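Write out the 3D structure for:
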Amino acid sequence: MNVPIAFARGARNNLLATLKSGDWRALLASFLYFDTGFTVWVMYGPLAPAIARDYALNDAQKGFLVAVPVLAAAILRVTFGNLYQAIDGRRLALLGIALSAIAPAVLLLMPGAPSLPLLLVLGVLLGMGGASFAVALPMAGSNYPREVQGLVLGLAAAGNIGAVLDGFLFPSLAEHFGWQRATAASLPLLALTAAAVMAWSRDRAPKSGDARAAVFAFAASLGFLIVLVLAVNAGLFGLGGKTGLMLLPVLGALLAIAVLPSRYRAVFAERDTWAMMLIYSITFGGFVGMSSYVVLLLTSLYAMSKIDAGLCMAALAFTGAMLRPLGGAFADRISGVRALGVLLPLIALTDLAFALWQPPLAGGIALLFVLYLCFGLGNGATFQLVPLRWPDKTGVMSGVIGAAGGIGGFYLPVVLGIARDTSGNYGSGFLFLAAVAALACVSLLLLRARWRI
């Protein structure tokens, strides 16, 4: 009886001691920035059924719509992180908040519905919410000593619980006020975050590099992404735009890599980099990609109401977000390699079950919860490995691997949307996802001798 109480008290005292060892207000501001950024980032997901109805989108177009902000965050995270190396993070956080607010402000003020191309451009700007990762986490860490960085970064990264708010908030607001007006609910949250950042944020990280070159790289990646998204939407890559959908992340990533300093590009010469990127594209990519698409999946596959599907999304996102710290602790005990050696096959088998079984509602919900359990635990386990494998490149690798997670999050809704549009069901899409998870598991097994276990 007394042991659990003593443990709880010890954990509480450890948390309080950690918070007191640095600037807790700066940590709270970083958490709010990441939390509201995540909320804005996946906003299109729970609103997608209503948007798709107004624009008569097919399944591939629905997948593209919700995937655009996910991809934008993946690419912009790299160049926004590079910008952080040269410019004060507080100013960058305010810039990120302002860019994130453009989409809901435009949708609120427009007298009628925007064109589909404009909606996609606004989706690129929503990606700035996901790019907050590149500034919020290092800025939070800069306010605390090295001994407590793991816990501090874990607390700041808990901002991905912002996806839970999407499921609760936006479907019901869209039902009463329309999806355009519903997006405006994010504006007070962004304003509150901006006030917290101005009042409390402090960036104590040393700065280096060419600020002008970093600004150019960020602006170039943002502009190029907008051009690419519009080109894909116009069908310029042929085959009804489906080829363009699959090429878009590749072209965007090539640009982001090209404008980075050479010290960043050097990590792509390592095999382990690609294996870790593949793994994180499944764990974090699965979390954010499915969070963007699951409302569409539930409404189209099971004719679930938009509000019920949003609540289900919230419960799934909460599960994945809360299990991430546990995944890191689990990996500390048995190693990240062993943890992922269990989680990746389980993801592959769950996707395979979805592909072959096409389950009824209860079975589908159960399989989705298994996936989110694996996504959450896998996210923590993956980043447990990064400082062990790359002790002198942890910052660079965190940005690169984080970007790969976003790209995986882009492909998941696109693949499922194309599968549904082509065959009338999701079977081939889940079969493809199962094969990729199995490939990641094979890569893990082949390279584990090079990683500490």
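The radius of gyration is 21 Å.
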